[in-house]
Amino acid sequence: MAGPSRTLAKANVCIMCIVHPGAMCSPDTMAHGTMLLLISLILAVGPAVGFYGGSMTFTPGNRFPDGSVEMHFYYRQSSRGPCGSQVNWICESGSCGVLTNIEAMVTDSSGPEDLWCQSEVHMATNVTTNGAFILSSPGCCWEDNVQGVGGWTLRTHVDTGRRSDTQSPNRSPVSAAIPNIRIPQNCFQNLQLLAHDPDDDVVRCRFNDTNQHPNIHLHKESCTLHREDSLALGVHVFELILEDYPVSNITVTGDNGVFSVSNASDSNPTALSQVPLQFGVEILPPAQGCVPGVNKPSFMTPTPLHGDVHHAAVGQAHEITLRAQVSDNSIFDFQVSGPSNMSKTLTGLSNGVMMATLTWIPQETDLYRHVPLCFTAETLNSQSEMRCIIVVVAKARVLSGEAKVICDDNSISIVVSKASMDGIDQNWLQLRDPTCSLTSNQTHILGTMSLNTCGTTMDDSGDFMVFKNEINSFENPNAVITRRNQVKFGFSCQYPKIASVSNRYINHKSDYIFTESSFGTFSYSFEVFTDSSFNSQVDPSQYPVQVQLMDPIYMGIEASTALPEVTLFVESCRATPEDNPFSPVFYDIVKDGCVTDETVTVYASDSTKYDFEIQAFKFTGGFDEVYISCSVILCAKDSPNSRCAQGCLGQAARRRRRDVSQETARHYITQGPLRVARQTHNSAASTDSGFLHVSTSTGVFAGLFVVSIAVVVGMLVYNAKRTRSVDRMQLLSSF
After folding, report:
1. Where are any strands of DSSP class E within 1-64?
2. Tens digits of per-residue pLDDT, 173-213?
3. Are 413 and 406 in contact, with CB atoms under 8 Å apart?
4. Entry pTM
5. Cα–Cα distance between 438 and 716 in angstroms, integer?
6. Of 386, 501, 522, 706, which alpha carbon lies 20 to 30 A from 210's?
7. How does pLDDT run across 258-273, given as a tens digit for each residue?
8. Is the alpha carbon torsion for 296, 297, 299, 304 positive or negative?
């Protein structure tokens, strides 16, 4: 197949003239293209090769004394049938240098059946000017598809100018997809794609201008496809562009001067780079069911979670274990999109469980790469969700130390031995949420947080709920050099999903625990009470709490700390229809320290308590649940310049400079849900205080904890969403 493949590669541009008559092609080119196409078809033996997508990433290499910059490009191409030849990349504009490439290597394939294949090629160029250029690759033809897409164009925008924040050229977003995505028609709900950035920029995805999907909504910030209507059977082509934007305003210095680049939150930001991500999704006939673990494979621990970041070292074997289970079918393989020299070993286990061990030894050419790795578990009629992770390659293993993780019912504690981490400065360490500090003594670095604070994230690994956080070092953003080692400790607690109903309930929000250097460890409790005495809490097992519209709801916040002279200040409270304080649908109850809801009564209490009453309401639009989220601050008592002393800051109030040393950071705490009980005409009136109608929660956690410590790297970038306020009168709707 080598001869026909080379012929097809050379014919790509000429074939474009045939497929697209409007292209600028001479009669000789047309004739030559037609002849090459016929020869290719005659020579092709076996299954036909259809283009099935591609992805590109790039990263800068060496900067030489003459000012030229080495740029490395990694292109993956998927094919239906055997692996076809790689497409040809050309310089569309700018100064691209001379592009050289290493022969393409197969990353994964369906085997002798030649149903699908994916390969990767490494290209490099020395760019003598610091500026922007564009690489592109037009070609034909896509696998037969529902939209009738024939030719493709892959386009990569690069800028080799020096960024003011990293002092290096920009690195592109990193993404990939497996070669053959298959989803039954009745099982396609959403498809989450990988959108990672080595420079910690904000990554956004969008469709290209020529191939839109009316039945698919693309969430640009999370790079997730959501199905809005049924999709026709067959192959659907997705042609996406990934763009990266800096978190803060920066400058880029090139040969043509210094250019300002606004941050991602700007109304009209400019992308630092653009890379393509193209893939096909085959919509299969409807399946009998879509239940993970039953009708389709479900991943199990220790399979990495989507978005995880792994560390590998040059010349050292890095292993990744995948496990999946299904009861109605049999898993026969794991489909993988990864580096070309990665090996895969399959092991069949009992109870429908299959395990794959992926082994990769990074080479010198992989140094400093952020390598995408995507995978699915395969049966004949179904496929698991696609998960993608990042493997970061360094010269040696990252620093690791002795640590102990303690998993309690509602909190995680980590204790790191200083002796095992020589040269680490605790003052330059932070948790994932930098507002949460760490403490230390002479021998250990300590951190305690609840399961829903300090940037702790929750993921469903299949058979466990995993709560993860990390300790990482940070640098002065204006510094060019550092004399401190960079470290990251990933730590997590895993809770079995199958558990006894006698254990704690997940609907009720337990205490929120924080640690800050000036205030030590402190916590907030946020509870619903049965009456205005605020002495009797609603039992956690009886969440969500059912209420009637207009009923009084009694809620209280209390701070607990070892410091004797502190004051609790509630800066804001808002209601949302979901467990997300930043939901686009919200209703302000307290704003800037001022009560904004006319039904709220604040009760006099201790300086570390905030007790209030509010009349029950619901959101319009079919929402039956309400969550209450408040931002709270602790201040040193009687500090005249703290936020607590400023109190209510209405529009006319004059804001003063605050003394941040006398107060904690702002923390968000949530309680709920409150569920509005549906009324019927024959329902009896309540005989109690008009409040306590509760239903039993169904979500539980077991008391058995499995602790895992992994070394991870990366930073989550949170994107602010545009929000809209909800009018109070719209909330008080009846049934």
Report:
1. 50-63
2. 999 999 999 999 999 989 999 999 999 999 999 998 777 88
3. yes
4. 0.61
5. 19
6. 386
7. 999 988 888 889 999 9
8. negative
- The residue among 289, 307, 459, 245 whose CA lies nearest residue 381 is 289
Calpha distance 123→103 (Å, rounded): 9
| Helices H / strands E in the chain, number of each | 4, 48
Name the β-bridge partners of 468. Answer: 457, 492
- Taking only the tens place, the pLDDT of each residue in 536-584 is 999 887 888 888 888 999 999 998 887 778 899 999 999 998 887 877 7
d(CA 642, CA 655): 11
Q: Which amino acid is at 229?
A: D
Residue 212 CB-density burial (10 A; 0-12 exposed, 13-18 middle, 19+ buried): exposed
Give the closest residue to 55 by CA, choosing from 71, 74, 72.
74
Residue 229 CA: distances (Å) to CA of 211, 226, 496, 623: 17, 9, 35, 22
Give dist(CA 508, CA 696) in Å, integer.
11
Contacts of 635 (CB under 8 A, 6+ apart): 566, 567, 569, 642, 643, 644, 645, 662, 663, 664
**Taking a C-beta distance cutoff of 8 angstroms, is the pair 658, 642 a contact?**
yes
How far apart are the C-alpha atoms of 674 and 615, rounded to whole Å? 12
Six-digit token pair at 73?
């490009």
The Cα 55–Cα 276 span in angstroms is 6
Beta pairing, strands 625-636 & 667-676: antiparallel
Q: What single-letter DSSP state applies at residue 142? A: B
- DSSP secondary structure string, 476-515? -TT-S---S---EEEEEEEEESS--TTS-BSSS---EEEE
Going across the sheet that includes 512-516, the strands are: 512-516, 520-529, 552-561, 609-615, 601-603
Position 425 scores a pLDDT of 66
Least confident of 348-357, 476-485, 532-541, 688-697: 688-697
3-state helix, strand, coil in the chain (%, to 5): 10, 45, 50
Separation between Cα atoms, residue 467 and residue 77, nearest integer Å: 35
Is residue 221 left, alpha or beta, with left meaning phi > 0 and alpha meaning psi from -120 to 50? alpha
Lowest-confidence pick of 70-79, 141-150, 181-190, 689-698 = 689-698
pLDDT higher than threshold 90 for residue 438: no
Give tens-digit pLDDT for 387-397.
999 999 988 76
SS3 416: strand
Helix H or strand E encompassing 17: helix 2-19
Both tokens of 85, joined, read 């030849």
- Return the amino acid letter for 704: L
**Per-residue confidence band for 720, with pLDDT thresholds at 50, 70 and 90:** very low
Query: Which residue, chain included where needed, has tokens 């990495």?
Result: 304
Side chain identity at residue 28, one-letter code: D
Q: What is the pLDDT of residues 343-381, one digit of tens each?
A: 999 999 988 999 999 999 999 989 889 999 999 999 998
DSSP string, 154-221: EEEEEE-SEETTTSS-----B----S-EEEETTT--EEEPP-B-TT--EEEEEE-SS---TTEEEETT
**Distance between CA atoms of 328 and 343, rounded to whole angstroms?**
28
Mean pLDDT over the full length of the chain: 79
| Amino acid, res. 597 | D
Query: How do residues 290-304 score in pLDDT, each as one tens digit?
Result: 888 899 999 998 899
3-class secondary structure, 42: helix
